[in-house]
Amino acid sequence: MVSLFDICYGDFAELRSPQETEYSIQAAGISYLKNGLAIGAVRHQMKDTENGCHIRLTVEFPALMPNRNIKAHQHHLACEFFNWFLEFEKRIKEGRYE
Length: 98
Fold this sequence. Notes:
By secondary structure, this protein is an alpha+beta fold. The chain has two domains: about 1-65, no CATH class; about 65-98. The chain contains one helix and four strands, in the order ββββα. It has one helix spanning about 65-95, and strands spanning about 5-10, 25-30, 40-50, 50-60. It has a four-stranded antiparallel β-sheet with strand order 1-2-3-4, with no helix packed on it. Strand 3 (about 40-50) and strand 4 form a beta hairpin. The longest helix has 27 residues, at about 65-95. It is globular and about 45 Å long.
């Protein structure tokens, strides 16, 4: 199933998930359809730890969203962040990050 929407990062007006103070970095905003209807939101929060980082991924879906869509999005996030971490690891081994 294809979805087309925009996320307005920095738009926190209708977010229901709280910002947690121990997370120093966040990517958060409201998701809008082309006609301006708010359909959900994201609040991805990150913090450094002694051994790397901790990331809390939160997606706010419409109440009537089918469970299969939510499960598919969980898979999407797992794949996306797995790929990011593989790339970070590769760059560290190449000496591009210290």
